[in-house]
Amino acid sequence: MMENLCAGKKIVTNNSWVREEPFYSPDRIHVFEDLDFSGVSEFLEVPLLDPDARFPEYHIQTFVRRLLGIGAQ
Q1: CA–CA distance, 20 with 36 (Å, rounded to integer)
Q2: Measured between alpha carbons, how far is residue 31 from residues 18, 61, 63, 66, 69 in Å?
Q3: Cα 50 vs. chain centroid, distance in angstroms?
Q4: 43 close to 31: Cβ distance less than 8 angstroms
Q5: 25-44 pLDDT, tens per residue?
Q6: Long-range contacts of 46-54 (CB under 8 A, 24+ apart)
Q7: How far apart are CA 54 and CA 59, in angstroms?
Q8: Is residue 61 part of a domain?
Q9: What is the domain range of residue 29?
Q10: Across the strands, what pairs with 11?
Q11: How far apart are CA 31 and CA 40, in angstroms?
Q12: Global confidence as pTM
């Protein structure tokens, strides 16, 4: 899921627990109940903001820096 968010993709899921995650944002993740897909088309039509600006701690560059012990990020 994080890979998709950082890549600037939207997510449609039936996993309601995602609403409890720190990265959850209703403009990026649409949660549907049962088989009710109402609202999905509208959700997908709204453009996204730059993913790096909202999720820097989940970006691949931040992960690599932490892994290699480079920088303070």
Answers
A1: 21
A2: 8, 28, 27, 31, 36
A3: 11
A4: no
A5: 898 999 998 888 889 999 99
A6: 48/8, 48/10, 50/8, 51/5, 51/6, 51/7, 51/8, 52/6, 54/25
A7: 10
A8: yes
A9: 2-68
A10: 29
A11: 9
A12: 0.69
pLDDT of residue 73 exceeding 50, the answer is no
Q: How many domains does the chain have?
A: 1
Distance in Å from the first CA to the final CA of the chain: 21
As a whole number, mean pLDDT of residues 15-25 equals 91
Residue 73 lies in a domain: no
Higher pLDDT pick, 73 / 60? 60
Query: H/E/C letters for each residue in the chain?
Result: CHHHHHCCCCEEECCHHHHHCCCCCCCCEEECCCCCCCCHHHHHHCCCCCHHHHCHHHCHHHHHHHHHCCCCC
**Residue 6, token pair as written in the block:** 């950082």
Q: How confident is the model at residue 50 (pLDDT cuts 50, 70, 90)?
A: low
Tokens representing 10 are: 């939207």
